[in-house]
Write a structure and sequence with these properties.
Helix content is about 40%, strand content about 20%. Helix 4 crosses helix 6 and helix 9 packs across helix 10. It is α/β, with parallel strands linked by helices and about 575 residues long. The strands form 4 sheets. Strands 17, 18, 19, 20, 21, 22, 23 and 24 form an 8-stranded antiparallel beta sheet that branches.
């Protein structure tokens, strides 16, 4: 169906509330186009979109259809689906609780046991809870760090990992085989299964495991002040428990601690956005705190700011903070004799090259995957079941997410803020601020500067422009920027690398990502976002000094856009 056919179908349907019909009638032409030009996609990252009526929106009909598909998928794949059940959690967003209860109801009426929490819980705890309850799946209702108008629906397998492409493809096929979102239906079983509210033992066990990852808990914590914000999201209770139990001096940003779906206490809930640091740093200045840590709304990502050697507050990118944390963890494990002789660190194809260099200096190898922590979680499970290594040491993405201990199989903001706090405290006790630590990493491995840029493409016209951009680059990848030539191209959709006229197969799932390697060592990766209508540009440079490195990415991005004709 076309845009207006879908729009009129909703306007005429008796299933659509009068309130939603009024919203539809008040839409502009552009709003109608964006809400109805396609079905909201259920892809490799699940389903995420703007809340509201429409085929390209998150609402009770699109969520119900996705859950019908998931129920059918589980019953087809698992003999014990009904008895083992599914764990469901949610964040603080509008409609999150309603979507959770709707999901539980549909699963129950398919005869599948459903476990829910009494209120919001973070994504990593959902991942852990699937494993703890020995469930065969999980659902997390969240839009992560997206704006307040959004929500989402992520699905997990029995390992506590988001479904990887070869698993989710069957689910997508089932969902696509169903009638449209207004007509998708099912016949409930005669006796629906239980919907069970999980007790505090899941919280207690998760918190206990988070606390167990500390490496130097005997460090003197007196006078070391930490400011923390959950950005109105899910991690406040767990984070404060962990900090209190381990004796840290922590000051929460009170106005950002309530689970407010409108995020009224912050200009942005996204650690990648500098505006999210305004209030925490304001409090840090009042307290003269050494460290600021934050999680995003669903508690899987972690942002960091710190008091530098000049008495000013600086923020860190996900690449910078993770490289420093990786160095601290591997250094400490080596000192304590717990570093595996056959250890592995995981990151992604758009992550800075610095992490791989740090890992190699400790004899730890690196494996890279496509963007999405599900690939890291899946690999952890693969090697764990194989039993003979390599053994997990650390995993991270440039987008502020990392995992230290794999009792969860998704990035974990609680683990991250705890270990960042320990790392910063360790260096503080040795007379170093984190900018000094970063300078030392540059001296050891080269001065790395990695930045992510993005361009938004809204509506049906924007989707076409995104496709044209990628096709144009794919057809002419060996470009030159200011005389700096591309010498190697990795095309993850074609699953091949081309260098010096030789083609090498890439053993990863297909993905619309192109990575360019320039003759001076610069890299540019281009990737349409899997959850938002935007194209991301990941630019990595290595400079002769901090100042040299910092100056390069912005100019390179501007020059690159000119070459692309953007």
């Amino acid at each position: 169906m076309g845009t207006m056919e879908n729009y009129n179908r909703w306007l005429k349907s008796s299933k659509v509330s009068e309130q939603d019909k009024q919203i539809l009638k008040n839409m502009t032409k552009e709003e109608i186009d964006d809400a109805f030009f396609k079905d909201v996609e259920f892809g490799t990252a699940g389903m995420r979109g703007i809340l509201g009526p429409g085929t390209n929106r998150l609402n009770e009909f699109t969520v119900k259809k996705a859950t019908i598909g998931f129920a059918k998928y589980l019953l087809e794949k698992y003999d014990d689906a009904k008895t083992s059940g599914v764990v469901i959690s949610h964040d603080n967003r509008h409609m999150s609780r309603e979507f959770t209860l709707l999901t539980a109801k549909v699963l129950s009426e398919f005869g599948i046991k459903a476990y829910i929490f009494d209120s919001l819980r973070p994504t990593p705890e959902l991942s852990f809870a699937v494993r703890y309850m020995k469930a065969i799946g999980g659902v997390m209702i969240t839009a992560s760090h997206n704006p307040k108008e959004h929500n989402g629906y992520k699905v997990y397998d029995e390992t506590g990992c988001q479904l990887v492409p070869d698993k989710i493809s069957r689910l997508v096929d089932i969902i696509n085989s169903l009638p449209n979102e207004l007509d998708a239906s099912y016949t409930p079983v005669k006796k629906p299964n239980e919907i069970i509210t999980l007790g505090k033992e899941v919280d207690d066990e998760y918190v206990k495991l988070c606390e167990s990852i500390t490496l130097r808990n005997d460090l003197d914590k007196r006078g070391f002040r930490i400011v923390f914000t959950p950005n109105h999201g899910t991690s406040y209770v767990n984070a404060m428990r962990v900090y209190k139990d381990l004796g840290y001096e922590v000051y929460p940003v009170v106005k950002q601690c309530s689970p407010d779906p409108d995020f009224s206490g912050t200009l942005s809930p996204n650690p990648e956005d500098q505006r999210s640091y305004i209030e925490p740093i304001k409090l840090a200045k009042e307290l003269k705190a050494q460290l600021v840590v934050m999680t995003d709304p669903d508690g899987d990502r972690c942002g960091l700011a710190f008091l530098d050697k000049n008495g000013e507050y600086q923020t860190l990118t996900g690449n910078q903070s993770a490289a420093m944390l990786l160095d601290y963890i591997l250094m400490t494990r080596k000192e304590q004799g717990t570093l595996h002789s056959n250890g592995v660190m995981y990151n992604t194809v758009v992550t800075s090259s610095l992490g791989e260099k740090v890992a190699a200096s400790y004899g730890v190898k690196t494996e890279q995957f496509l963007t999405g922590f599900k690939f890291i979680g899946n690999r952890i499970d693969y090697y764990e079941k194989r039993g003979d290594g390599p053994f997990f040491e650390f995993g991270y993405e440039e987008s502020y997410g990392c995992l230290i201990a794999p009792f969860a199989r998704d990035k974990d903001g609680i683990q991250a803020i705890l270990m960042y706090s320990e790392m910063a405290l360790y260096h503080y006790r040795h007379g170093k601020t984190l900018d000094m630590v970063w300078e030392e990493l540059g001296q050891r491995f080269g001065y790395h500067e990695d930045k992510v840029f993005s361009i938004a493409f809204e509506g049906s016209k924007g989707a076409s422009m995104m496709k044209d951009l990628m096709n144009g680059l794919r057809n002419n990848p060996f470009i030159s920027i200011e005389g700096n030539k591309v010498v190697k191209v990795s095309d993850y959709l074609k699953q091949e690398t081309l260098e010096g006229g030789k083609r090498t197969k890439i053993d990863l799932p297909k993905s619309d990502v192109i990575k360019l390697y320039f003759e001076d060592g610069t890299t540019i990766a281009v990737r349409p976002s899997g959850t938002e209508a935007k194209v991301k540009f990941y630019i990595g440079v290595v400079g002769s000094s901090l100042e040299d490195a910092k100056a390069k990415p912005d100019k390179l991005y501007a020059d690159f856009k000119k070459v692309l004709g953007i």
